[in-house]
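Board notes (copied after class):
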Amino acid sequence: MAVSKLVSRLGKNILPPECMGPHRFVIDGNSGIHSEPTALISPRVREPTHNRGAGGPYGPPPLALVFGWAGASNRNLAKYSDIYLNQGCTTAHLTLPTRLIFNDTSEVPEAMSGVLEQLEEVGVWERPVLIHCLSDTGAMCYQGLRLATQGERLDVRGVVWDSCPGPIPEISLARVAALLTVNWFCARQDGDSRTGALASSYRLLLERGWPNYLRKLKGLSVDLSLMEGVWAGHFGRDHFQQHKDVAELFLYSNSDFYLPAKYLENQVLARRRAQGVNFSATRFRGSAHVQHFRKHPQQYEEAVREFLQKAWGREEVEEVQEVEEQVQEDGRRRRRMEGTRFPQLTGSFGM
């Protein structure tokens, strides 16, 4: 009991507040909400009440797929889905169960294939699609989706990268401990008992944490959460090389413990700029990992709305903006442009 309480406290300190609260995966249809086992990864689907907005008046509305961070709840993700719903998009949101994030990542493509089968009910193959990835767990969903659709191609028009793609985690004893703590907390959020969550973290230590620490001592790379040998963050980093016609929006911060601003700018954005790839990016100030929408709601929504118009309008304009919160008398925030020199932050196991 004392151990579980200690781990719970550590989890609350490591994970952002948005990760608090239980999460389940359900489909919301005409017959009501039906609970499904977590392992099924059933998305929650909602239809707009109007067809105006990003999709225009012709054909079915676009489908926005919102993929959440580790520990995200349906209530968390619904706030992001609302942005697209209000623009006339059909929305579906989900996040991966803990087991697939840390232990059995190779099974993610199969799980996402099951998600696609469920989304056939809303015409996922016939609609234009927009992907919204929250942290590298969200990128992991998209990576698995791509692997699950190698034979057939979804009509993906744009990808929003929020707090990702990140660098592959560095290994140290402290970070292994943090990884086990995050795993325990997320497993509890999945509905596991204290004993089950502890067993999950113990398995993670034996199969991933300790072996990767030994690999570091030998000078080898980390072998963690890979699909066909590729880390989700590297999938996102190199996404433009195979999908140059897909618009991209990057939402990041100078205060993200997991995704250092310098890493994103030097390893992700600079590569696109060097090859003449057009993209959009908004750099927030003072917001933590996957909390940009929470701290800067108006600027966040505006960035996504503008990106929707570009993704469907095929406008090829590179836009890098920095948003700084400045509370005025009327409570509104305003944005201003700033320079490109930013302090480098340290990484973590946050996903």
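Comment from the instructor: The two ends are 27 Å apart (CA to CA). Residues 1-38, 314-319, 324-349 have pLDDT under 50 and may be disordered.
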